[in-house]
């Protein structure tokens, strides 16, 4: 049995996700090195500590509800881990019951660091805002069409000014339906 257990232990120790097993009171019974790295702590200090010190105070209730749902089956959610002082790490966390043990209420939690994804989402949002401003302020009439249907998806204010139509008059119409320009 111990020979069969070794590959699984190696897998959990080397995977890129943080993993912990928790007792029903939130005590960390086991944690992998990736989890310790995420919370900027040593593995020796993490094991035996309370998971609650690593959960952002704004996400404590979300975490507790997630663990409760995790005891009944798998559940997942985004939240923030507290990492060494003021730092926080956005993670996608999933919880599931720890089966086959003599510890009722024990749960297995796996966390994926989504810091890079969050940075990319912010960069995309910023880019969209810049281009939306450019689109809205352009003194050229711009129509955006659905390439497959030819329907008008968006128009900038200058097109409305040029054509004398309202936004609602144009959106969803085929380009040829709007008639001639004034």
Write up what this structure looks like:
This protein is α+β, with helices and mostly antiparallel strands. 38% of the residues lie in helices and 24% in strands. The chain is built from 7 helices and 7 strands; from the N terminus they run αββαααβββαββαα. The chain has helices at residues 2-14, 33-38, 43-46, 60-72, 115-137, 157-163, 167-170, and strands at residues 18-22, 28-31, 75-83, 87-97, 107-113, 143-145, 152-155. The strands form 2 sheets. The protein has a 5-stranded antiparallel sheet. The protein starts with a helix and ends in a 12-residue tail after the last helix. The mean pLDDT is 87.
> Mind describing the biggest β-sheet?
5 strands, antiparallel
Rg, rounded, reads 26 Å
Give the overall average pLDDT: 87
Structural class: alpha+beta
Dominant shape: elongated
N-to-C terminal Cα separation, in Å? Answer: 83 Å
Q: Quick summary of this structure?
A:
This protein is α+β, with helices and mostly antiparallel strands and 182 residues long. The protein has seven helices and seven strands; from the N terminus they run αββαααβββαββαα. The longest helix has 23 residues, at 115-137.
Which features would summarize this protein structure in a list?
elongated, alpha+beta, 7 strands, 38% helix, 182 residues, two-stranded antiparallel sheet, five-stranded antiparallel beta sheet, 7 helices
Describe the secondary structure blueprint for this structure.
Layout: H1 2-14, E1 18-22, E2 28-31, H2 33-38, H3 43-46, H4 60-72, E3 75-83, E4 87-97, E5 107-113, H5 115-137, E6 143-145, E7 152-155, H6 157-163, H7 167-170
Antiparallel strand pairs: 1-2, 1-5, 3-4, 4-5, 6-7
């Amino acid at each position: 049995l111990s020979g069969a257990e070794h590959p699984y232990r190696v897998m959990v120790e080397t995977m890129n996700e943080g993993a912990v097993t928790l007792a029903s009171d939130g005590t960390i019974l086991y944690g992998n090195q990736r989890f310790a790295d995420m919370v900027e702590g040593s593995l020796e200090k993490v094991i035996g500590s309370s998971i609650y010190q690593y959960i952002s105070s704004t996400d404590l209730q979300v975490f507790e509800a997630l663990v409760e749902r995790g005891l009944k089956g798998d559940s997942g959610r985004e939240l923030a881990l507290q990492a060494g002082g003021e730092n926080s790490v956005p993670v996608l966390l999933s919880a599931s019951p720890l089966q086959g043990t003599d510890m009722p209420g024990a749960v297995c939690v796996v966390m994926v660091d989504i810091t890079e994804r969050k940075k990319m989402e912010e960069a995309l949002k910023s880019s969209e805002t810049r281009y939306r401003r450019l689109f809205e302020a352009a003194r050229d009439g711009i129509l955006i069409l659905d390439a497959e249907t030819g329907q008008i998806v968006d128009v900038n204010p200058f097109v409305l000014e040029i054509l004398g139509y309202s936004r609602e008059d144009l959106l969803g119409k085929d380009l040829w339906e709007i008639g001639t320009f004034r």
